Amino acid sequence: MQGNGGTIGQKKTLPKSVETSQGGKVTILWNQQVQTDRTIPNNKPDIIISDNEKGTCILIDVTSSGDRNVIKKEAEKNLKYKDLTI
């Protein structure tokens, strides 16, 4: 029997919101805010991939759109997170 996106009686488990690779070279975060020195309204991308050796991060914000809207959505995402660039 299905209910609320899962089987009734079974416990849903969610993955941890932080995963670090073996050896600690890369950390993947989701559902996490980016810590900044000032208030930024859009500081919670869908996924953050942190290269701990290089000291760099890749921000990933997922969207689903029709083929005609891809360029528009990409521009919106770039504008949304431009305050997080250094």
Structural notes for this entry:
By secondary structure, this protein is an alpha+beta fold. It has one domain (16-84). It has one helix spanning 70-80; strands at residues 2-3, 6-7, 18-20, 26-30, 47-51, 56-60. A 4-stranded antiparallel sheet has the order 3-4-5-6, with no helix packed on it. The chain has a two-stranded antiparallel ribbon with strand order 1-2. A hairpin with a 4-residue loop joins strand 5 (47-51) and strand 6.
The proportion of residues in beta strands is 25-35%
Report how far the terminal alpha carbons are from each other: 50 Å
What is the number of domains?
A: 1
Taken from the alpha-carbon principal axes, the silhouette is: globular
Summarize the model shown:
The chain has 86 residues and is α+β, with helices and mostly antiparallel strands. The protein is built from 1 helix and 6 strands; from the N terminus they run ββββββα.
